[in-house]
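tool_call predict_complex ligand=zinc ion
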Amino acid sequence: MEIDYAKIGLKVGLEIHQQLNTRAKLFCGCPPALFKEEPEITFLRRLRPTQSELGQVDPAAFFEFQKGVKILYEANRATSCLVEMDEEPPHPLNMEAVEAVLTAALMMNMQPIDEVHVMRKTVIDGSNTTGFQRTCIIASDGWIKVGEKTIPIQAASLEEDAARKTGEEDGGKIIRYRIDRLGIPLIEVATAPVIYSPAEAEEVAFAIGRILRDTCKAMRGLGTIRQDLNVSLPNGALMEIKGVQELELISKVVKYEVQRQLVLISIKEELNKRGIKKDALQQQFIDVTEVFKQTRCKVIRKALDKGCGILAVKLPLFSGILKRELIPNVRFGTELADRARFWGRVGGIFHTDEMPAYGITAAEVAALRKATGAGEEDAVVFVADNEENARDALKAVVERAQEALEGVPAETRTAKEDGTTRYMRPRPGAARMYPETDIPPVRLTAELIEKVKAHLPEPAEKKVKRLMREYGLNEKLAKQIVDSEYGLLFESVVRESNVAATTVAAFLTETLKSLKREGIAIEKVTDNQIRDLFKAVGAGEIAKEAASDVFVWLSKNEGKSCQEAAAALGLKMLSKAELAALIDRVIAENRNVVDKLGAKAFGTLMGVVMREVRGKADPTVVNTLLKERLANR
Ligand SMILES: [Zn+2]
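tool_result ok
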């Protein structure tokens, strides 16, 4: 089914977050880097709601606090100091990061603000040791052209990245966060909600991503760019979707969200037709432990053995609704389950739309219906957990079912790797910012702005033309290079390596794209390694045909050299004498062909030789030598 997005009134706004590769973090001298080893330092803190100076606590944040969670922070000395641990005040704002944001802002025709004021944004999920995230607006009111359309850019801000979650312990009572990422500078760019189709959302994100890369300060690799999307339909709701990690995923996420909202709207119509009223959905929970006393369902058995009971609730006239698919792998029942997990801390829910299953028999389902007074037209949801959790979970289920009568509830959702989204938390309240008093304001002087203006990167269209002119690339390849993450690297590789520009460009675009598609972690290979690789190709040490094998090896063996890669892969180039001997052997082995075809045997023999020496000899050298040896015969 092709959806007319303009007709249904889709509106999308983007918020793009890109980590900046500055020399230091935003508020201290630590390098913006992550560590993989075991932590050198750990410390435990309890979540506490930071009462903002405006006297308001975000309801979503307060809920996190109520869960009574403790946070175990992990650190090492190379990537964090007392600032990240909240034991020392933040240092002044990192001006290198400010200049990077200013560069991007000026490229997006924005107005720099006069004075930068760092603000605190309440975050108490533990991802910031302070209980807030520091953020500041650098510029506002700009625009970019995407195709023929002008997209207004509302604001460009500088923020500190949060700590990254590395796991949970004790059934979610302790959350582990690593503070290496905390304080890494992030640029945040927000567009107005004037994007009207999934494809356009992706195009705009790519255009902004390219500008951020052009500042030369964008970090590369998975997790270094994160998009938040605001997606709304007039008959649906405004949805905040967090954490899309790949630009290529944006159109899919938007498409799925539209589909999800449309199905929820049709579910609402169906429920209204069935004549269900909100009052009919009651928080009446019935203990049905007795029904499952003899059950062979393993999950329920385990819960019962631990002393848990089973609580059920009837959803009148909801039969068949819970199994309706909204988007791949997400049914209406999944939406109920996600709410139950979040508010009730339960592992999941059971419901009659998927029964009999999981070892639950038809007889048990019949007994369950009888115990809850449910007919065939009703659905029953039940949970096996301690009473408090079960009650909270079923309460959330009933609330979500009530919302279904109205259509689409506004939520904050999180994006999964397959482009689908899941419930994350309720929409946060608006009043979340207050001034950071530890950091003095910074004036963006006319001198500073002039200095940044004088060094603005070349605009994309101009660069495409220049690459075509200077390096003889065709337009397609020049565009691909400019669009790629390797636009800057390309020119230095060509200058240093003595390899044809077209070869380098095709490798950095098409080859790397297909390696990425095959699941190779291409971001693990550094710019310097790529430089060395092409120097080795230019010097005849590695055949250009072997470049991608070497690259793949380097991605799997971090910190090694091209020479080590070539040795490990047996890619040492053959000397001319070795090659000549090999060719003579091939000619001897194929004497019949040579006698029959004479000089015409060249093509066949070339194929035989190349199969043997692929990656170990330059085809043009093979060509010359083979012709010579054939003629000599
Ligand atoms: Zn630090």
